[in-house]
Amino acid sequence: MKKQVVAAGFVLFSFMLPLKANAGTFSRVYAFGDSLVDNGNAFARTQELIGFGIPPAPYFEGRFSNGPVWVQYLAEALGVAETNYAVGGANTGSNNTLIPGNPLGLPGLTQQTQNFVAANPQADGNALYIVWAGANDYLGAGVQDFTQPVNNLANTVASLASVGAKNFLVANLPDLGNLPATSGTSNSAGLNFLTGLHNSALSQTLNNLSQQQNLKITLLDINSLINSAIASPSEFGYTNVTNPCLTQTVCANPDEYLFWDAIHPTTATHKIVAGRALVAVPEPSAALGMLGLGALGATGLLKRKQKKSTLAVANRVVNA
Fold this sequence. Notes:
Elements: H1 4-16, E1 28-33, H2 41-50, H3 70-78, E2 81-84, H4 109-119, E3 128-132, H5 135-139, H6 147-162, E4 167-171, H7 188-213, E5 216-220, H8 222-231, E6 240-244, E7 257-259, H9 267-280, H10 286-296, H11 298-305, H12 308-319
Parallel strand pairs: 1-2, 1-3, 3-4, 4-5, 6-7
């Protein structure tokens, strides 16, 4: 039997998929950012330029995980198409750290935004614009001052707003010192402190931007979500929240892991993020909001009852 976190994700989609026609709040999802949002763009670009894609198998179809990423789950739950500009390795500016020195000229968040604006001089005001970046500034580029990354994120929102975007979902950062790659190292505490400064400044900056330009900007609090999962793993269906599933081999039970590799989450975690995002989106319908909230609580419900009939129905819906 699947563990509770997977069952919760299944129940989320068993609730949402029949109601796609009622999810007309947004016309489309546009995504910008790094490997936590990338649905295969870095893989396609590296395969084109150097003959093999990054990341390779056993990563799932060019995603930096073992399955789809959360923006894909979210778009599916909302019943809308997704257009994804995110590229693994992107920082908030013009750099990309997927390959040291960026010899392939892969884009950062700034170029992603510029490419969108160039192609869309009049953006869709009914779409949802997702922005998540910053980890590569601190981890890949070694940035020690949060000011520029936060300003870059604000500039991205402002640039998209300048051509008509109105609805934004911007994610903050998990504590970067608690990743398998950084936890227990001499940099751990400093990275967590820097994360706190980044998230605090981002919240205030987005609030100011929202008021100044009359935008609907929602901050997706990834930090508290991941910290809750680490503090109470069983409540999320996890048995391991400290080690990566992927090492020299793939673990036997990836859906019980918070992390897929030393930096990136499993697709089970992406499902949980999608559920949180579904509740947080700027203008969800009342029905979708309540169902999303119920789906986030499905882990606890399934943990108590573990009804095989519910899992069977959910599996049929997802695999249909």
